[in-house]
Structures
1.
Amino acid sequence: MDDLRSLGFDVQIAADVTEAARLLSAVPADRRVALVDPRFVGHVHALRLGLTDPRFPAAAVPGALTAQPEARPALVRALSTAAAAAVGAGAPTGPGATTTTVTDRTVPGRLAVTMDAEGTAVQRPELGSLVAAVPVDESARTTAQSAVAAVDDEAVRLRSAVKAHDGFFTTFFISPYSRYIARWCARRGLTPNQVTTASLLTALIAAGSAATGTRGGYIAAGLLLLFSFVLDCTDGQLARYSLQYSTMGAWLDATFDRAKEYAYYAGLALGAARGGDDVWALALGAMVLQACRHVIDFSFNEANHDAVANSSPTAALSDRLDSVGWTVWLRRMIVLPIGERWAMIAVLTAVTTPRIVFYALLIGCAFAACYTTAGRLLRSLTRKAERTDRAARALADLADSGPIAQIVAVRGPRIRGAWSAPVIALVGAGALIAAALQQPFGSKQMIFAAVFYAICSGTAVARPLKGALDWLVPPIFRAAEYCTILALAARSDVPGALPAAFGLVSAVAYHHYDTVYRIRGGTGAPPQWLVRTIGGHEGRTLVVAVLAAVHTQHSAFTVALTALAVAVALVVLVESIRFWVSSGAPAVHDEGEPA
């Protein structure tokens, strides 16, 4: 009983299942309830995993069953079904949680089976070496108690706080001590969201230090960036250690990662400018490349994670390589995940110059992008998977098509062909980027290229994106929009145009990341009014092309880009914050991106 109370439960005893059902019905509808056999023997962390994880409506371990508000009707029905067979039960009430203990050890397990059979999924967490048992006699109880004593509950909890699949740098240089920081935070009542915010503030201070443009500032920036990454690892480990998972937390963790990295790029660019070196184009290029890498990951995963017959010789080869230890670490390192990337940035900031930092980033990320994209292309071409309607919907949402593309998709031609969507998107994007690079700045031809791109964009998404390579469509659109803004700003020779373009791409990229996290959180894409208001990718590209053609003198182009960036940022931030603060999405925990 004390173990249950330590987990925040109030415990009451009922004489039978009928009384248990009555006591459970008296618990407020917005609270979790649980049933635990009084003969339960096991680790506290086994009960914690089974009874307190907020991600699952219902969960069970041997001898214990829990139901959150959405699963309580199913539990009540299961109790009615099992009432004749149950010997006894009990139910507690208390702030935020309720537990019922049952004297028949088979009751929680049978209730879980009944709930599963009726369509309510019951999560059964992997316990590993942890013990959860209901002994039938004293001999079995003694054996179970000996098994509990043989395993260090806290050591298992600490190990499980570390992400199972992480990068080399994080695994061997951060996690060995950050898990203890996570435990320290848990014992002082700190939440993962508070640690995430501390990581963001530390990174912003690091960016400010880099912006000084002095060697001391660069050294401080590198050290602070590494400490920010330690805190970034700690927040996830704290969430796993204390089972404090939330949709808001996953969103903050992922969004702040991007904010930290891009703010640091800006700090490096400002610091370089103080020393007379303009690296804004490199900073924007690094951000564009990194954002495109991520959208490739997102699109490929969304297109294939629920596909039917989802296998290929390339995937089989990858699985075989995973059985060879050193290849696993090598393959994780060469994709330059966030740990390796931030370590490289921090060290190079301290000992070299911002220009060298960005050169290293561009080379490393370009190689990683080629490696991962080539593997995904091979998998897509060699597998015979059937994409689902959900996957096609997700890709359409990731495409971020605005009013122009939507009109073309409805009223324009529908070109058939297995690869028609990515080919059409690539033709439009190629024409757009070529015009931005080759046409004189301010040329009216750029507007025609943007119109052609908008038409191609609508044609590409006119049919459901279920083809083998249709996951390439959103990345192509991202590359087209971001690279066009970069090229026009770089070729304008207008003071401040590149920093303004950096701000615009940051605002748009935030919107695209926000779309991904909404889809992952099971809440769907942003509302259509938001996409229409900010124009969609093709609408924004056309606006930037028009601005470049109209504002060719002095600082007008910079002012126009800045105004557009501020407008987009305000609209997407206000709607995003409103949504996530009020979202009723189920709790999730984002394990983090490999890159």
2.
Amino acid sequence: MLRTYKIRWLSGTLVLLAFLTLLLPQALLPQAAAAQAQTSGIDAVLVADVSNSMNTSDRDKISNEAMKMFIDMLPVQGDKVGIVAYTDQVEREKALLTIQSDADKSSLKDFIDQLARGPYTDVSVGVAEAVNILNHGADPSHSPMIVLLADGNNDFNKTKGRTQAQSDADLAKAVKEAQNQGIPVYTIGLNADGKLNKDALADLAQQTGGKSFITDTPDDLPQILSEIFADHAKLNVVKLPSVTGNGSYQEVTVNVPNDSVLEANISIMSSKPVEVQLTDPSGQAVDLNSDAAKLSTSKSYSLVKLLKPQEGDWKLRVKGAPKDNIDINLLFNYDLQLVVDPIKTKSYTKGDKVDLAAKLENGGQPLQDNDLYTDMKATLVVKDVDTGKSEEQPLENTGSGFAGTFEVPDNHNYELVIRAEEDSFYRESAPITINASGAAGSGSQPTTSGGEQDKPFPWLPVILGVIVLIVVGVGAWFLMGWLKRKNRGFVGQMVVEIRDENTGDKSYPQYKKLVSFRGRFHLHQLLQLDPELKETEKYVFTPSNGDRIIIRNTAGGTLEKSGRAVDASSGVELKNGDRLSIPLQQADKTILIEYLV
């Protein structure tokens, strides 16, 4: 009897361990998601029409200034930006660059200033390349987006035989891929000559979940770019009093409403340069090139970025040229998420009531500053999945969150989203699914009479369960190892030069940091996806032990390491200080690389 009890106890323990093993990863999912949410940012590709028609519609290259202001509004570090300049082909492009310093932003803005213009236009080329860049370099934890600036219809080179039907097919393919990847496309149409195909741009934005903007003057572009930034980051643009320049300093109050603000962006848009001064709430002058604040200037805007600013009234003093109209906007960045308390998972029916509660979290933890809730309003947005209709109902502000009750109106399926908003920002919760299609709820489990000791012990199910547990455990071990290798990061940087074998000239050294790559990347990504160097896609880098990396030629072949030819088909390991020479077959050039840790 004792032996039977021990066997049963041991078997029960094994089954319990099996359940714990299978359930543990599920229990950890919310914490993992919260940790990932803390690091989420923006991966943006700016797509610019650089056809010759822009010489008329944007003579002063205000579109360039607008893109530069968008870059300046991004946080000091963490986000990624890529750039595509197109006509009927990709003229120049820059792969996603992780912003880690002011120098990175300057590099992007310098690239924009160097864009030249050329003949012909094909919008599909720019959009398709932007999607390609995001597919190759976007961070899975970031929010991707594309911003497209265009000024007219397609204009094909007749000698190439390109047709509108071909362009439409390529654009439809790119749009489908953007939809699948959750990439919204924001379109800006510059309608200077009245010939803009507004419907096409609006349709492109609508299909991908972006927004479409139309303007008759390039002077509106900085304002539009700031609105796009705000929309994607779920922020509200706060309008500050406009100023008409008079040659003297004029004061504007900038109110920072709470201490949850990570950054405050003050954009000052004017047709002529302005001078700016700033004092904090205590009345102290602020250095605009310090850890507390940064000033970026261009010929059509100035942008003051306050870093973790003190709550209270700041004083902005602006001096502009006489009669110059100066518009001032304010955008706050918050590290906040709106999280809904879990609800009971079950099948609901008409008339059932679902209690809802939501709160703001900062870095995965409940918000400590309840003053932020004071002026906030929350709304429950209810979408009837079966009919497609949506309705809204207000929720109660409890002072430390939001609460309300949803009463199921019919035996349909519903999607619930809570939206909380105040003057400077809004947040939306993840959707909640309510199954009220009329299916019966689960009843109690059937029971049987008789003592447990009267039943034969279920050996076969227990043995099969143990076997399944072992198989699952081994499979999970291999899977975790594979995932670890796939997401393993890189260290150090590469110094890259390109030598022209016809002239012997070498490009300036470019220092490429590797920390943004995970698992693997190819040399073409490191070369900013330059179409001329496309054959470098076959050279793939993967991480190795001890801060080393491996380069492999997937097509087979040799390269030179420290002056010696080596077979790269099976992989060549690089350590700190190693140099490579990679001759290209299709473009008379050699890629020179030095790996530094």
3.
Amino acid sequence: MSLSGTAVAPREFPTNGGGLCQKGWTSGSLLTTPARLTTPLVRVDGELVPATWDDALDLVARRITEVQAEHGRDGVALFGGGGLTNEKSYLLGKFARVALGTSQVDYNGRFCMSSAAAAGNKAFGLDRGLPFPLTDVGGADAVLLIGSNPAETMPPFMQHLRRAIDTGGLVVVDPRRTPTADQASLHLAPAPGTDLALALGILHALVAEGLFDRDYVEQRTRGFDAVWQIAARWWPERVERITGVAAADQRRVATLLANARNAYILTARGTEQHASGSDTVSAWINLALALGLPGREGSGYGCLTGQGNGQGGREHGQKADQLPGYRKIDDPAAREHVARVWGVDPAELPGPGRSAYELLDALGTETGPKAMLVFGSNVVVSAPRSAHVADRLRGLDLLVVADFVLSETAAMADVVLPVTQWAEESGTMTNLEGRILLRQKAIDPPAGVRSDLEVLNGLAQRLGQPAGRFPVEAKTVFAELREASRGGLADYSGVTYERLHDGEALYWPVPGTEHAGTPRMFLDSFAHPDGRARFVPVEHRGPAEPTDDEFPLIATTGRVLQHYQSGAQTRLVGELNDVVPEAYVEVHPDTAARAGLADGDWAAVVSRRGETTARVRCVASMRPDTVFLPFHFPGAQRANLLTNPALDPTSRMPEFKVCAVRLTTKDGAE
């Protein structure tokens, strides 16, 4: 592969084995796409017109000052992204709390990993997606994969499942018969929103048949009895009536995992994006603890992250309730430490703000922010109840978007700032294993484009901040991030660009420059004060929105091989868009026929919140009560016009994966 004539030598990196998916090997074309923005745009008389950088930044700073003078510091909000580098994530959080003085900051990672993070913190005392190297999974005899379709979403991952596949040890839990499920020895297809009941049923079988690890439970955990009191009522036959998964298959999974020499339980968005997502993940962690998997080399529980920097993006302060190092913003000691690094008074730091959807829902309202800056996110397509979110954006006095193409959100902005992309800047990312990676600049950006760090610096100075408080060099920002994270759960203080450049494999925490990092966590103890993991009692509640006569079907959403997230980038790559150019709805042929539809027809999928247009794909393996839509498409084809913003009470994750819908005919695409 080459980037504008610059040769890039491949290497056998252990996580992906040197492999790329279609999105990876075509990503270079985005750097020269004709849709690339190379000059700031400012809205004049309803139209976006080119402007100089000075004029654009002056305008933004002036409007921020005016809004805050009238509505207070929280009158301005900031929305980040899980694909931003660690340096950007860190500086965004600092910019919000110091330059803006606002509590109103969150990011789109709230829509991805937040439920697993909440459950991991409860069980283990901290959250690192995979507390072990991904290569360890390659030695597993059995893998239980819940709510994930890596054969399409991250194909290089599949090599690590090869042993489990070949030995008959891969079990996939997914309402759909996905390409990943096709490779499993056992596919469990529960009704969407019933995963928690399924986890309870498997745990019941494990304990009732004497297969759980009693010694591990007694020596390394707390709270088992309270969990068993609940699971005892969820015998597999009862669970079968709710989930549709045969009782015999539940018992088969329990036996397979218990008899495996090495086993892993891995969760992802399918089981997390629910109004009970935190509890559901806790139920799967309870099963892992009963099996004695976490903290045992060669086995464990982990969460598969969903964005380019899904792990690092949630560690450094762009989340409403966090400060760098995975610290809590309402912890006085954390505030004292970070304020000292930032050179400000701890009392000046705001407290926790609104979570992502709550923030978007409040925009332009009487008590909500009147201005918002967006970095690395396309909420008009990616947020639940997206038509409502677009209305909220229209109600703002000021919307500023930093992007490299005119995404659907950028197209609504008052100011659009063109920023650099992955090959045009250096910075670090933290992968799903908690390993920090250095991504080095390969080419120069187009003339007229600035980095996000330069944008924040320019705005901060115009808002009265000292020039050096918001550095523009990623290495300088990272040096400050190291100090801000020192002593935190996600301690990066021992990580340096030099160590990363030399090829050291550094997994956080890395509490000193002589420390080798922590590839495998919890081998000796968990992160709770007593060193023991916690079982968390959870009950099955079911979806927030049940089906009824008016909306008799369940809609669930997800990704396809060719597209990523909101599709703002992948829809610009002809090689990808030609394969999947439009939205579609997967539906059982009998369900389609009852709606008067056939394969290839345009359909209207209607929920209580809106209607989306999609091409019918009849799939015989679909559950007759369920339809599936990819969420990568804009306009009338947005799947998130349908989705339910009901929030998990702990993680504040919206219920993307389940909503009640009906299917009707539609004359032509919109």
4.
Amino acid sequence: MHADLSRLTFHPERHYSAVVAQQGRVQLDADANEQTAIQLHRARTLAADLIGRYGGPRDAAGFRVEYVGGKHDIDTLYIHGGRYYVDGILLDADRPAPGTPVPDEDTEAEDAEDTATPPSYWTYWDQPDAFRDPEKPGDRLPSPAQSPFVVYLNVWERSVNAAEDPALREVALGATMPDTAARVKVVWQVLPLSLAALAIEDADPSKEVVRAAFDKWAQRRAAGTARLAARSERPDHADEDPCLVRPDARYRGPENQLYRVEVHADGEAKDATFKWSRENGSVVFPVDALDGTWVQLASLGHDDKLDLDVGDFVEFTDTAHASRLEALPLLRVEELDLPGRRVRLSAEPEPGVGRLPHLHPFVRRWDHREGPRRRGRTAALKGGAVPVAEGEWLPLEDGVEVYFAKGGTYRTGDHWLVPARTATGSVEWPTDPARRPLLQGPAGIARHFAPLALVKGEESAVDLRLAFGPLANGIPAADEATLAAEEQAHREEIAAESPSHGRSQTTAEAESAVEGDE
């Protein structure tokens, strides 16, 4: 997630069940975040073990899909409400009910006539996190008349900060104070998939065939093949630099950092690019207006470390494109107008990006620069990002280097986190007994998939969802023999507890009468 973190310490293979706070100790964000991660991991693992890879409650299963075409200008899907679980992650498809405003006395009757109640379901075009665009041919639904297609769920998580959701900021702290905690949001997107992509040649496959083919496709898509290692090396000119924390330090940054190395453009190594940030990509600036290449910012950085400078590369984006995981060109800051809170970029942002205020446009700063010639080649940027070079150590800054393994396939948004510490003059990265850095898969993004329906035509969608019933059942009535045995045991228990201690009722009454006469 893009957040101002010290580091992430949760590793499921360590089998920690809780974080225990100790008195008199410094409290770190990493400890609280690890406790949250432990609880989330346990809850989702339990749900996945009980439910399976995906499924919904029998009486409230969500994401029932209807294909609607012909009678509309453009084909669409109806996505009905309810709950569904994918790999233990809870998804909610219920559409929130609209609020009721206080009526205007002068126009109350007119407003009542003009107000239209929105449908209780989502559609393919207005689902909350997919941001499909009818103007983009690639976003349109296939025609089932030509070939059936599968509708599936794409599920992942992304971070949200106050730049995207201003309600997260506590205004009582003042405009000059930084924001507080960020949020993690579950993103679900209902998308189409052709049978050809699933390697299904049959035009009328069964549910079992579609589910089996989809599971194979999802397994390939969920597991990325890119791997990376990180290390810190002592620079050749370290002896000439008096600012080093220690004479033998290899990481020579003046502060502790959490480096984020993130894939920008996806594909094979020859096409892929990456970007990096020493602040985990958390330096963002809300945008108030866009005028050509000039960007009006809502605020500037709080200090020299968190502001913008000429030469910085930034990502101009908004909530919609962040959710779509699209690689937009990274633009260079060419000019600053500090009194006016404006920056001039090297080019105008992509059409359709950041033009709608309700999508909360923002600028995210990245810290890579175009480097000098090194080892016979120049570190020229491509689309503002750094080209991936496999099989060699690539310098970031201050002695931090990264290494991409050969033969990887790269996906936009996948990232690795590299904590760098001044106390050790090194980076925190797993190594083997010989202290060689180990290749690691991405820390995210974890992608999850589930099939929903096989669309064959109008009002002809084969439901591919799975459902589960409640575990609790009514207590069955006992048979007559069991009831008689229980009654006999009850009588014996009463007899054992009576004052007569097992004597008959007649004997007890007679003895009581004699005692009374005396």
